[in-house]
Each structure stands twice: as C-alpha cells, then as structure tokens.
Amino acid sequence: MQTQLFINGEFAPSSGGGIIPVLNPFDNSEICQISEAVAEDVDRAVEAAKAAFPAWSRMDPSARGWLLLKLADAIEENAEELITLEATDTGHPVRDARKLDVPRTAACFRYFGGMADKFEGFLPPVYPGFINYVQREPVGVVGQIVPWNFPLMFTSWKMAPALAAGNCIVIKPAELTPLTTLRIAELMQEVGVPAGVVNVVPGYGHTAGARLAEHPDIAKIAFTGSTATGRRIVEASAGNLKKVQLELGGKGPNIVFEDANIRAAIGGSAWAIFHNQGQACIAGSRLVIHEDRVDEFLDGFVKLAESIRLGNPLDPETEMGPLTSKQHQERVLHFCGVAKDEGGEVLTGGKAPDRDELAKGCFVEPTVVAAKPTDTVSQEEVFGPFVTVTTFKDDDEALAIANGVKYGLGSGLWTQNLSRAHKMARDIHAGMVWINSYKVVHPGSPFGGVGESGYGREMGFEVMREYTQPKSVWVNVDAQVPPHYER
Ligand code: NAD
C-alpha cells in the first residue's frame, strides 16, 4: 500500500516529515500512516507538473487518450484491491464499491480516454479573406482538491478530463481517505503516464490545500467539498486570478406527487438518501410529499429504512456501513439533537445503533424526521443517513419548498404526469433533476450545481470546456492589407 507523496513520478516522504494516521471507520483502528504533504511539497509538485506540461500538452491526443484507456483496464484488473481499500478507508460497503465506485471510476477514465482526440475546436465564418480558427488549449497546471465521501470516484472525475485535455495535475485527496488516490497514481505509473503529469499531495486542507488554492503557478483549481471551504478557495485564488470550479454542498429536494408510483418512489427515495450513508452532495435529503399520500409513503419508507442491514463494510451482505469518521458521526448525531430541539418528530433512527458489534464504529441509524421546511435540519446540509419529511398541498407549494434553500444541486420528483414533470424540471433551482429516479450519473452528462452549490460542471463536453481555454487565431488568407487600414 502506497503511503507517501507521489511527485515527479516517484513515491517519497514529505519534506516536513509529518504523518497522518488513516483510520478504518468500522472500528476506528489504524490502517496505516501516510506522509503529510505540506506547502513545500506542494511547491515541488507544481514544479514537476510545470516541467511535464510542454511535452504532455503537445503529445498526440490519441496517445494521451490511450494511456487513460490503459488505466481504465488496470483499474478493472485491480478491482478487488481497490474495492477493499475503499471499503476499509471510507466505510463504503463492498457491494457498493463493487457495483458502483470501481466500475464508475473505470468508466470515467475510459470515457475521457475516448474524448482526448475528439474534443474539437471550431471555425467561425468571419470576413472574406480571413480564416479564423479557434483551438482549445489546456489551461496548464491544475490543482484538484477532493473530499472524503467518494475518494476513488472523484479522483477519476477530476483527473480524467483534465488529463485528456492536456493539463498536468497536482491533486490533494482528503486527509481522511487518501489510499485509493495514491493507488491510482501508482497504476498511472505502471501504464506509462510520464513523470510529473500527475502528482498526489495528501495533506491537510489548511496547509497543503490552502497552498494549492493560492499557488501563483496553478492556472485552475477544481474543488469538491463543503460550501464553507469553497468560499476560502475563491478568496485564495484571487492572487493570480486562477480559474475556479466548485462542486459544493447540497440539500436535494425529492418531491412525491399524489399521482406517483408509490412503490417506486419509496425504493428510489431510500436510495437517494441512504446510499453511502447519506454522505453524498446530491443526496435526496428533503422528502416533500403530497399530503394525500404521506401516510402510505411513510409506512413503506420507514419500514424500508428500518430493514437496512448495517454492518462491516467488508461483509458482502452489508447494505450500510459506518460514516467515514468519528467527527462526522458526532456531527450527524448533533443534527439529530437539533431536530428534536426544533420540535421535529423522529419517525425512526436519530441515534447510533446499540448493537455491540457496531459500538466501536462511526454508525448512525437511518433517520427519518418530520420537520418544517424552515427548520435548521431542513436548511443545512447534514450529510448523513438523515432525511427530513414535509408535506404539501399543491404544485406551487411543492416548488416553493424545493427552492427554499441556498443550495441547488440534485433534485428529484415522482409523478406520472408528463406535463407536470417537465414544468417542475424547468422551475426547480438545481443543476440536476431526476424524474422518477434519483442519483443517476454518467460521464457524458454534466454534473454540478447552482447557487451555493457552486459553479462549473464535471463530466461530458462541459468539463472539457472547463479544463481548456479557447485561442482564436486570425489568418489573412489573401495576405492583403486588413480592410480598416485601406485609404
Ligand atoms: P471539506 O470542504 O471539509 O473538505 C474537502 C477538501 O478540501 C478536503 O480535501 C480538505 O482537506 C480540503 N480543504 C479543507 N480546507 C481547505 C482550505 N482552507 N483550502 C484548501 N483545501 C481545503 O469537505 P468535506 O467535509 O471533506 O466533504 C463534504 C462536503 O463535500 C459536503 O458539503 C458535500 O456536499 C461536498 N460535496 C460536494 C460534491 C459536489 O459535486 N457538489 C460532491 C461531494 C461532496
């Protein structure tokens, strides 16, 4: 298992010599200690990326893409190891890591490997006698900061398009969950990605992360994490006016209309909030249910929540693992207390499970709370297996509740009425809307938010625009004097 920094194609200890313990959230035992990257290490990594940039950015794009395709194959060949690492480091149940995290990571590298030689410039029709061509150039060295909730998958979402577009990378995984990002770096080395193109600096946010955000030689910072940290990144980026892309928090509304297929809505809504212990920015964390169907819905939904199998993430039967850290478990339990203080009714959960075999881990029971839309727990991101329930009478009220938060990331609605579905999709303030589904993602479809959920998009052609800049080249074909100089 790699535990050191990856700079200029080599694993090496940090210059400061510090270490960060990495814990298994199932029992809080120590998995390993990793070298702690500090500001000087970030500077070395940026130097390495700068040196690698000319050759990498001018490499035949097909050859760049081919390396990403080989990496996708290597990820599949090493799937079992990545599944175990991710499950041990984050608490993701292996059944999810096997079905989602690892295949989606490979799919992302494959998609952008294919994209590398297909992302085209264009030729606007301009004045007679001139050709104007616009080519998309990579921005240079990009800094990437990822959170702990989907470390493997988000590493691919960040790295794959940036590399396909010809950029070099300095990436900082979250201090809690660095292991799969380091393994990906190792696989990159094995498939032949040149030294310096990808550098990994596992360190704390206020040191390594802050240095990345302010670094004068970093042309762009791509950040996924909390809205509070996103603000700090924007402030730190002002020094050299670097490009910023922000994927921040969310408080996804999930609306169940009176004509919904209730069985499908119950299953889909449980997936929307309980997958990955609710630690998902796009989680459907606010259930907004028509008053005529609320009893029927909750009857099935609460039963389903109570039947979810909590356990060791390495057990293939486990459906819900621990939260990723003790500190985060305490934060979610704090919100359970806030819900009660605000007069919310806890319909199920609201506490850590009292089973002995789970006592050492960071578990929280699937929690359903009836709350008012204005309550703190309906407004603030809890980021756990915690969903609020509120009711509505008509579509206008549902929309007002859905749009009544500062965030705008994921959202869902359950209805059989086509016209209503499209009207709501048009009017919901969100970057993504799922109709009769929730949390479907694909490397080809833009992913990101509005409002305090951030700006910029991951995935598809949109993210290729984010990682490139247009250069407009004017050619005077007839070599005549340009018209405005004619006398
Ligand atoms: P966080 O903001 O605390 O940390 C995210 C990353 O930022 C970590 O790598 C951390 O070390 C780093 N960081 C912290 N302080 C920093 C600083 N001052 N300068 C630079 N980097 C710094 O978030 P978290 O708690 O790790 O992750 C959970 C949050 O991420 C939630 O709010 C969630 O909604 C959000 N998230 C958003 C998306 C999305 O795509 N919109 C996806 C997943 C998670």
Explained architecture:
The protein is of the alpha/beta class. It contains 15 helices and 21 strands. It folds into 2 domains: 5-248 and 453-473, 3-Layer(aba) Sandwich (Aldehyde Dehydrogenase, Chain A, domain 1), CATH 3.40.605.10; 253-435, Aldehyde Dehydrogenase, Chain A, domain 2. It has helices at 39-57, 61-77, 79-90, 94-115, 151-164, 179-191, 205-214, 227-237, 262-274, 294-307, 326-341, 376-379, 395-402, 418-427, 460-466; strands at residues 5-7, 10-12, 19-24, 29-35, 130-138, 141-145, 168-172, 198-200, 220-224, 243-247, 253-256, 286-290, 345-348, 367-370, 386-392, 407-408, 412-414, 434-435, 450-451, 454-455, 468-476. Helix 9 packs across helix 10 (294-307). The protein is globular and about 75 Å long. It starts with a strand and ends in an 11-residue tail after the last strand. Nicotinamide-adenine-dinucleotide binds next to helix 7 and helix 8.
Structure keywords:
487 residues; alpha/beta; Aldehyde Dehydrogenase, Chain A, domain 1; Aldehyde Dehydrogenase, Chain A, domain 2; 2 domains; 6-stranded mixed beta sheet; 20% strand; binds nicotinamide-adenine-dinucleotide
Topology:
Layout: E1 5-7, E2 10-12, E3 19-24, E4 29-35, H1 39-57, H2 61-77, H3 79-90, H4 94-115, E5 130-138, E6 141-145, H5 151-164, E7 168-172, H6 179-191, E8 198-200, H7 205-214, E9 220-224, H8 227-237, E10 243-247, E11 253-256, H9 262-274, E12 286-290, H10 294-307, H11 326-341, E13 345-348, E14 367-370, H12 376-379, E15 386-392, H13 395-402, E16 407-408, E17 412-414, H14 418-427, E18 434-435, E19 450-451, E20 454-455, H15 460-466, E21 468-476
Nicotinamide-adenine-dinucleotide binds next to helix 7 and helix 8.
